[in-house]
């Protein structure tokens, strides 16, 4: 079922209903194309068409203009044979695609005019598209940016992930508490995707391994799984800038081999008859199911192996079709593991090469290492996945055998090189023996890769000093840095068209193709006319966001006040809690000293906490409790308001980011690998307040020390402070403002319905403050007063804002991908016909 040509995967032009080439597209052509699609694909006429019918017709008409380029790009890869890149990621936070596709095709205004002639509002249609809920945060959004940049740079690439039925949950705030509901993004289907039922792979689980002796006396191993699940491919075309190249995002959906046990059904057990189907389909049901239970852990492992195995089988099938043998795999294929989720790929590729294709172990290992590289995204030990050995032995017995052998040969090599220290041997082993035997997936990915990269200069440095210190000593050339980037097409051109037009008018059309051309606006940072236009665009964006805040939070905010924004996944190391404590301190100060010249501001929060992360969910509740008190206190006189926007996603980010004045990047130094929200916000003219963490360090270098607000401990100081202990009683005693804030929160001032609600949280901050919220509080509070002082100097603020935008060109994901291609993947742009 799976030996299909790539070109055959895309429909023919006759099937699409497309009758014009992109160069010939006009308003009339697009209008006619929409009507054809409305009639022949949606099955409606103009009189009976609903808004969603029109949306579908517009999507189909847009998709038609991508398909020909998709087929041309696919065919060129077979003709010219460039090295292919396979990007394996458990998350692809792609967001809405209509605006992205129209923007990259250069058809936005033409389509807007065509729909207007049909009596339809394009902007309204764009809001009908659900966000593809295929990611949690920065990891998934980075993967989406990278896919678009690979297409823009004409790198022959496939993204591989899971087609989650529900993806990440939909967040609802009920009385301030996060509630999780299914994000049913596929309820009405997905018009962007092409189902490929002929691309189907059987994925095994459980069973046993048999040792077989061949006629020459050699032993080979055959895995006999007890259970099989089918992986069905769904393809979404990813169009690059100006439509010059189109790549494929291939997502796998799980399906039972036998959807119904007919004998069980006929016996009257109707639920039991579909039990296997439910078990199989659970694999692609939900992103990040809770792993608090053994069943949840097993499901997560099943997800990771399912998509890794299907992707590797697909990559090998494509390679064999083109080159007829697997020994040249490393020469023609680069596989990038996005974090440890696909790390099982190391063992699975070895299994496929050795057991299925008959390659000798030593050669297979050389091929595997030469093909795979690994991106690390975290220094948090709990985020570096590890799996209990008994679980792996039960679920993936052959892969566990292979992991044992990889580890044994690895440790033999370490000893032969003269490293016999027991501590070092234990530290570099893939098997952690400390708290029940577990497989360290980060170690597996590291040892099985030819390159391992961090995602900012600081993060890569800390990788060598912390989590991979010992492995880095053994393999000193393996860790490299690739600082993350963002796609300006989405986060500037599409999200902020008003600013884009101003920048293009000032710096020239070159900004559309060369992000570094943004530097040309720097001389205008003090030009009164340009500053006025820049400020007017920002205010327009703030007016739009104020409407969203009123609609979703029922909080009325003034667009002329400072919009202080923290939007990201809720986690203790990201320190939303520090922001909340400063908000309470500011609230107290405003009431105590009403005669001072306070800068009016609105604190804007958005972000989800993992469903099982109870402490993070308590922080969300605290933010909403604080908001409730402050927003309803007349003595504040509008100087301070707080809004927590629910269900943060890509589309909401596209509204918040262009309207932001201040970007909160306040993680505990040394704990944020990179961040990409910091880049998006700075690109749109927000000033950063942050620690010297992740890519903040490099942003500071590019925008200038005077145009960013840095506070708090460095990563080295954090390590030293933790070395002295994390009891904060002395720190709190030295800070009257912090002491009053903690007393108020702990005593129930913000939770009169449950005075003890936050007592435990205050106790943790007092005695076990691992994330050093208290230690950095005074520095953060003082830095916020510097922010306020600069805000009052309007010329200085706008100069810094403009210079932030001017200095962000280096943070394009095109630059990042070019570095991957040149230094890790050893590939280059695909030749054009």
Automatic annotation (TrEMBL):
Q: Which cofactor does it need?
A: pyridoxal 5'-phosphate
Alphabetical keyword list: Carbohydrate metabolism, Glycosyltransferase, Pyridoxal phosphate, Transferase
Q: Does the keyword Coiled coil apply?
A: no
Question: What SUPFAM superfamilies has UniProt attached to this entry?
Answer: UDP-Glycosyltransferase/glycogen phosphorylase
**What Enzyme Commission number does this protein have?**
2.4.1.1
Q: Which PROSITE patterns match?
A: PHOSPHORYLASE (PS00102)
The protein's name: Alpha-1,4 glucan phosphorylase
């Amino acid at each position: 079922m799976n030996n299909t040509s790539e070109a055959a995967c895309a429909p023919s032009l006759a099937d699409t209903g497309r009758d014009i080439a992109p160069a010939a597209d006009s308003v009339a052509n697009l209008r006619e194309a929409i009507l054809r699609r409305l009639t022949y694909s949606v099955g409606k006429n103009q009189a009976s068409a609903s808004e969603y019918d029109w949306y579908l017709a517009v999507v189909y008409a847009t998709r038609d203009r991508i398909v020909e380029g998709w087929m041309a790009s696919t065919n060129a890869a077979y003709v010219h044979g460039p090295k292919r890149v396979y990007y394996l990621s458990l998350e692809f936070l792609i967001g809405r695609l209509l605006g992205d596709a129209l923007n990259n095709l250069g058809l936005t205004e033409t389509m807007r005019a065509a729909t207007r002639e049909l009596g339809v509002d394009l902007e309204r249609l764009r809001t009908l598209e659900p966000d593809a809920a295929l990611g949690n945060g920065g990891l998934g959004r980075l993967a989406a940016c990278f896919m678009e940049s690979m297409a823009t740079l004409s790198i022959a690439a496939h993204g591989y992930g899971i087609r989650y039925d529900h993806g990440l949950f939909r967040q609802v705030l009920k009385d301030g508490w996060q509630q999780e509901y299914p994000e049913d993004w596929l309820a009405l289907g997905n018009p962007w995707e092409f189902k490929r039922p002929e691309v189907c792979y059987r994925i095994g689980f459980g069973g046993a391994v048999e040792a077989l002796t061949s006629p020459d006396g050699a032993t080979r191993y055959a895995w006999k799984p007890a259970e099989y699940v089918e992986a069905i491919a769904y393809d979404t075309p990813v169009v690059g800038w100006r439509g010059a190249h189109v790549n494929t995002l291939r997502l796998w959906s799980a399906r039972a081999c036998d959807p119904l046990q007919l004998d069980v059904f006929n016996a009257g057990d109707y639920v039991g008859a579909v039990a296997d189907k439910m078990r199989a389909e659970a694999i692609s049901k939900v992103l990040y199911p809770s792993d608090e239970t053994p069943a949840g852990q097993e499901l997560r492992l099943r997800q990771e192996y399912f998509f890794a195995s299907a992707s590797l089988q697909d990559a090998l099938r494509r390679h064999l079709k083109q080159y007829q043998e697997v020994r040249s795999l490393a020469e023609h294929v680069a596989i990038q593991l996005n974090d440890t989720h696909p790390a099982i790929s190391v063992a699975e590729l070895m299994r496929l090469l050795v057991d299925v294709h008959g390659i000798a172990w030593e050669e297979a290992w050389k091929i595997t290492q030469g093909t795979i590289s690994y991106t690390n995204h975290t220094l948090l030990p709990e985020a570096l996945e590890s799996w209990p050995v008994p679980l792996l032995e039960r679920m993936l017995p052959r892969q566990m055998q292979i992991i044992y052998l990889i580890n044994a040969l690895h440790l033999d090599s370490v000893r032969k090189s003269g490293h016999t220290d027991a501590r070092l041997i234990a530290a570099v082993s893939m098997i952690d023996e400390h708290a029940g035997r577990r497989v360290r997936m980060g170690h597996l990915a590291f040892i099985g890769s030819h390159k391992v990269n961090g995602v900012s200069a600081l993060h890569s440095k800390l990788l060598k000093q912390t989590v991979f210190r010992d492995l880095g000593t053994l393999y000193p050339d393996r860790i490299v840095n690739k600082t993350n980037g963002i796609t300006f097409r989405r986060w500037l051109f599409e999200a902020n068209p008003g600013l884009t037009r101003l920048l293009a008018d000032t710096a020239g059309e070159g900004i559309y193709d060369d992000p570094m051309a943004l530097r040309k606006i720097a001389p205008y940072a003090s030009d009164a006319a340009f500053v006025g236009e820049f400020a007017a665009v920002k205010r327009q964006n703030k007016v739009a966001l104020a409407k969203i805040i009123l609609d979703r939070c029922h909080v009325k905010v003034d667009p002329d006040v400072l919009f202080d924004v923290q939007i990201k996944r809720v986690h203790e190391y990201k320190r939303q809690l520090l922001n909340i404590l400063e908000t309470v301190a500011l609230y107290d100060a405003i009431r105590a000293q009403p005669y001072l010249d306070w800068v009016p501001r609105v604190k804007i929060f958005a972000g989800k906490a993992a469903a099982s992360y109870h402490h993070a969910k308590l922080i969300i509740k605290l933010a909403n409790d604080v908001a409730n008190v402050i927003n309803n206190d007349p003595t504040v006189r509008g100087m301070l308001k707080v809004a927590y926007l629910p269900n943060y996603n890509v589309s909401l980010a596209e509204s918040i980011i262009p309207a932001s004045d201040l970007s909160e990047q306040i993680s505990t130094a040394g704990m944020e690998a990179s961040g990409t929200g910091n880049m998006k916000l700075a690109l749109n003219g927000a000033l950063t307040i942050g620690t010297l963490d992740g890519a903040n360090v490099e942003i500071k270098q590019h925008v200038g020390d005077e145009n960013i607000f840095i506070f708090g401990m460095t990563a080295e100081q954090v390590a030293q402070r933790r070395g002295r202990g994390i009891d904060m009683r002395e720190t709190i005693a030295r800070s009257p403002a912090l002491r009053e804030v903690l007393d108020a929160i702990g005593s129930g001032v913000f939770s009169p319905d449950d005075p003890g609600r936050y007592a435990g949280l205050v106790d943790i901050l007092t005695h076990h403050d691992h994330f050093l919220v208290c230690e950095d509080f005074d520095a953060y509070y003082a830095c916020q007063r510097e922010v306020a002082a600069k805000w009052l100097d309007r010329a200085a603020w706008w100069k810094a804002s403009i210079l932030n935008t001017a200095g962000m060109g280096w943070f394009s994901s095109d630059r990042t991908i070019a570095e991957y291609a040149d230094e890790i993947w050893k590939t280059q742009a695909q030749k054009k016909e």
